[in-house]
Design goal:
Blueprint (H helix, E strand, L loop, with lengths): L6 H8 L5 H10 L4 H18 L2 H12 L2 H7 L2 H4 L9 H33 L10 H26 L2 H6 L20 H17 L4 H18 L18 H11 L13 H5 L7
């Protein structure tokens, strides 16, 4: 909750006129408690999980239901789909969506209710001024690198015999991944993977809006690498060392026996530690 009753008070505290973004943030958050602003992450996550994978899911289902000739005209699965023989029914898509939504709501929702003191302790702020674009970009890069490195080692631990059998095997139920399967996992894995995702903001504290953006970016990246499609025009191909869907799809295709391609974002950890496998 911002300590300003009016825009004039906010501008007096800033010593300058507010930007349009800052004025909008003041109007939205002035009377919203900080812990409720933090809990926005739950709604953002569920909305993003519902909408972002939907276009490719509908395209795949449409191509599956159409006659062969029509399917080829609508989408060429042999060209873009990494495992073209793997076809899921609408019921399988729905089951994945409902199961994952329930786990996300229960785990992330519950975690958001109890973790707010830690958020305040590390210095996540809600006030003015808003961060600059350069500050946000630098923080995003740090968060990606930290999360990728820690996530790599956690992923390797989850592929030990105990970790896989008791936790990680749930995520590998889909050997041909798709967008809705990105966060499909045991509830314990959802909580465990929250640690590397939050470590970056804990090391380099940010504004609450940056934290929202970070979780949006991280979730979109997870959906992308689990999409099951390798489009040549995907803009992520311009990102250096980005693994993408083909890198992670191989890991799912091998399944529980996989001891390679553990990286979630970049590929340099797999390269450095000898777990990189050509797709």
């Amino acid at each position: 909750m911002l300590p300003y009753a009016t825009a004039a008070e906010a501008e007096a505290a800033l010593g300058r006129a507010m930007t349009r973004a800052e004025a909008a943030w003041l109007r939205y958050s002035a009377f919203v408690p900080d812990h409720l602003l933090y809990c926005h992450n739950v709604a953002i996550l569920l909305i993003l999980y519902t909408i972002a994978p939907l276009p490719l899911a509908l395209l795949e289902l449409r191509a599956r239901a159409a006659p062969d000739g029509v399917a080829a005209a609508v989408m060429r699965p042999s060209t873009y789909k990494l495992q073209p023989r793997a076809q899921l029914s609408p019921a399988a898509f729905l089951r994945c969506y409902l199961d994952t939504g329930r786990v996300l709501l229960l785990t992330v929702g519950a975690l958001s209710l109890v973790s707010y003191p830690a958020v305040k302790m590390v210095g996540i702020r809600t006030g003015l001024p808003l961060p600059s674009a350069g500050e946000v970009a630098a923080q995003m890069l740090v968060y990606l690198l930290v999360e990728d490195y820690l996530g790599y080692w956690i992923h390797r631990l989850l592929h030990t015999r105990w970790g896989y059998h008791n936790i990680h095997r749930v995520h590998h139920e889909f050997t041909a991944p798709f967008g809705y399967a990105a966060p499909y996992a045991h509830w314990a894995e959802v909580l465990i993977l929250g640690v590397p995702a939050f470590t970056g903001p804990a090391i380099v504290p940010c504004h609450m809006t940056t934290l929202w953006l970070w979780f949006v970016l991280r979730h979109l990246e997870a959906i992308d690498i689990h999409s099951g499609f390798n489009f040549p025009f995907n803009p992520t191909k311009l990102i250096p060392f980005y693994g993408g869907a083909d890198h992670h799809d191989y890991h799912h295709r091998v399944g529980g026996q996989s001891q390679s391609n553990f990286s979630s974002v970049f590929t340099f950890c797999d390269y450095l530690y000898g777990t990189d496998k050509a797709c």
